[in-house]
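Hi team, as promised in this morning's meeting, here are the two structures we talked about. I've kept the exact order from the run log so nobody has to guess. The first one is mostly here for context; it's the second one we should focus on when we meet again. Sequence first, then the predicted structure tokens.
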Amino acid sequence: MKNKGTGSWIHRRRVKSAGATTLIHSAELTGLATAGSAGTGVARRILVDAAVDGSVDADVEHLDRIIAAATHEHRDEPVDLTDPAVIQYTSGTTGHPKGAVLSHQNIAWNSFNVLVDYELSVRSVALMISPMFHSAALGMGVLPMLLKGGTVVLEPHFDAGRALELVQRHRVTYLSGVPTTFQLICEHPAWPATDLSSLQMLTCGGSAVPARVLDAYEQRGLPFTGGYGMTETSPGATSLLPRHSRTKAGSAGLPHFFTDIRIADEAGQPLLAGQPGEIQIQGPNVIDGYWNRPEATVQSYAEDGWFRSGDIGYLDRDGFLFISDRLKDMIISGGENIYPAEIEQIILELDAVGSVAVVGVPDEKWGEVPRAYIQLRPGHTLSEDRLRAHLVGRLARYKMPKTVVTVDDMPRTSSGKIRRRDLRSVAIETNPS
């Protein structure tokens, strides 16, 4: 179950959507489990660890007792490759989360993609600092590592200092996360003194890694692998290996070995290199549809079966994918298309900026215009004049944020992605000077 920072109503919606009848949770999340299962079809709750204070309801079962009482008879349950294996909910950064039905085939082929592109072995040790309900942690880390026979170190919460300590203690070779987690790690006071010599591979998804973060790791001989994917692709679609991290800076890489990528226009016709359009994906790692959402399933596939990502991007002449932005995040100002990610990457070059999100806000003249929400790094300041001076000459005038709002914190999903729709809602309700 997710962490305590998200609302129980979100969990309740997903539990009801999935039709779950059994809920398995830790003692720490008993309160959330109780609230999140209220009014749903959950008739059975199972605790995976003993309650410290004995406050768990009497009707809650204990996993260790269930295991102790079970028979030793081996059950051979027939499973077909196309049978559903797990329902994973999308992050919901642009709308309500949908339950992606991942089959056994989907997660197996995704693991094969990872093992082809990344150097994992039985001696590899992965530290999972992202939750396993997030498809990247499960599909790009845990499952391929276990398939190869490596070791997985699981953490219930992310803490930058503890992550550094665990890397040194367990001689971790593989670490994956989002740009925010990697930034927090390299800015932690323990960063300079921690032995990171065991690390061989860092994978980062969700968005591009800021140049200063990339520099901090490369100065210690730690190059990044990047990539692009989503829950619906189990989740890998492309990967950018370290040897291309500088020559193809900003790229999400090449398609995984068993996966194909194309860029298509609104009519579904493939576009030439350099032409932006919708990123579409095909392969055995792509889901067949959503749980109890037939209308969403139909809308998510082109007539010839390619999955429509809802993301805008282009392929260069070498076949490397470059992400422009989410289709739903694109700002249309005076008839011109503006991709927030382009603006955000330039703003992130400023040392004072910790996080940034650009969204469209209503405007009587232009329809909508860009607004930048900025979270500063501790101890830093940034004037609006300094920001605009940094952008002048690098962005067309119509792409320049018309307003800038400094925030103490960004609304995020449990996997660390910024919830843009929350910022858009705030932007509609407020009009800062």
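And here is the second protein, the one for discussion:
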Amino acid sequence: MKCKNCNNEFENKFCNHCGQSSKVDRINWKYLVNSIANDIFQINHGFLYTAKILLLKPGKNLSDFFTGKRKNFYKPFAFLLISSTIFLLSTKLIGNETFIDDFVNGLRTASNDNPDKSPDLRMFDFLTNNQTYAFLFIVPIFSIASLISYRKSKYNFSEYLILNLYITGEQLLIYTVFSFIKDRDSLIIIAPIILGFLYNLYVYNTFFGELSWLNRNFKFILTYFIYLILMGILLILLMITTANIV
């Protein structure tokens, strides 16, 4: 059999030169549907598989990822981007607002109450309109906080970044489930934030299982404390920088 990709002669199911399958289907609607299912949401090693294992045994599976068992994992940046797209589409389709929208609206309300000390919110408006950037902005900050809190661990910044990309992507899928709640005045709207925090706590507890219970929980709370400080400093700097540009 001759490979349709590189013209190499081979006998088995896959070309031994370029790896292409011997079965090449015609491009039609069936091909497109199968391509989406196989390339993006494939159960064996795609988006859904990664979402499933990050929900069931996140600490163990992420530990396996860092020891080299990575073949079945969806790529971390792609996982976050698709998760954020699903989350944002679900909120927009139902007509709800995200927690970033709520945060910026809160700032705007506060600035309207104090017009003499009104901050420049253009940067926040940009993040509201491009919320995927906001998620990509948050992850490195939390990773820096993780690196500081767990500085005696064996992981470097890049590894913390990958860890938190997967965690944030899974959190966004949790938020998606609650994005269909129409009652914005109900206390249930804070449920996804609480669940997202508890999920993060669970992942860090199982991922750093070699530490004592007290030590790993102290470091986790310290991570959030440092993260909030860093975010506060950066937000203030953004407002000052934006105001000076005017």
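Starting points for discussion:
The radius of gyration is 22 Å.
The mean pLDDT is 80.
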